[in-house]
Structure formats: structure tokens, C-alpha cells
Amino acid sequence: MFKSFDTAWVKQALLRVYQSGWTITVMVGLSLIFCNFHGRQAFIVWWCAFSGIALIGFSIFLGNLPYRLLKPDARISRLANFWAWLVWCVGALLIVLSPIFAEPLVLILLVPVGAVTAVLCCRWVSRKGLLAWIQ
């Protein structure tokens, strides 16, 4: 009765759009415009979510250092151990604090927007190899 609609091209097109750097630019621009209309609280909510996910995401990209340090055969200085765990703790703290700053409840929608933007940014940087010189 009904013909099957082939959606493979739609999935492929959406995948290409999400992998583009322009998607990140548009999401950041729209978020900042929204924050401009709703004030400092909106920016704090978005920035805490974005920076918390970005800190943890880049830490994972760079080798998931806190978990790599748990191996007994790895010889890494105590200072590297301290900084690795500090990055994870600050990232987790920012993620937890992000919804607390949402004074009007509509600003809570900026938490997932900031998180998705940070994930897309981390994936774009890892795909482009911009932090390969650190490893």
C-alpha cells in the first residue's frame, strides 16, 4: 500500500552536518545570542556546561589520564597525577554547578545545549588532530 521511504541519504546528510565545524559555530552563535537576551545567568549556565564537558572530553581524548594512572606499571610524576585529577574534578564541579545558576527555569535548557556543543567541539578537534602534538 505505502512505498518504503529510503532515509539513508537523510542520515548521511545529518551525519555530515554534525561533523562540520560550521555547526559548532552556529550553535555557539545562537547560544550567545540567546544568552544576550537573558543576561549573565544564562551565559554562566551555558559556559559551565560547555567548559565542564570540554575539560572532561579533552582529558578523555588525551588518553584518559586519571584511569591510565591507575596502572601500576606506569611511571608518571605525582604532579601529572595531581593535574589530571584536578581537571576531572573541576570539570565535574562545573557540570554540577551549571543547573544551580539557572534562575529562571527556562535557562536549564542551556545545560544540554552547552554539553552538546562541547561534545561536538571535542569530536571536531579529535577528528582534525589539533591536539595530536600533546600525546
Describe it for me?
- By secondary structure, the chain is mainly alpha-helical.
- Helix 2 runs antiparallel to helix 3 and helix 3 packs parallel to helix 6.
- The longest helix is centred in the middle third of the chain and has 22 residues.
- It is flat and about 65 Å long.
Which SSEs are present, and which pair or pack?
Elements: H1 8-18, H2 21-38, H3 40-61, H4 65-68, H5 78-97, H6 110-128
Could you list some keywords that capture this structure?
6 helices; 0% strand; 70% helix; mainly alpha; 135 residues; flat
Q: How does the major sheet shape up? A: none
Structural class comes to mainly alpha
What kind of assembly state do the chains in view correspond to? Answer: single chain
Task: Based on Cα principal axes, name the global outline.
Answer: flat
Q: Level of helix content?
A: 55-70%
> What series of H and E elements makes up the topology?
HHHHHH
pLDDT average, as an integer?
82
Q: Number of helical segments?
A: 6
Strand content: under 5%
Low-confidence residue ranges: none
Distance between the termini: 57 Å
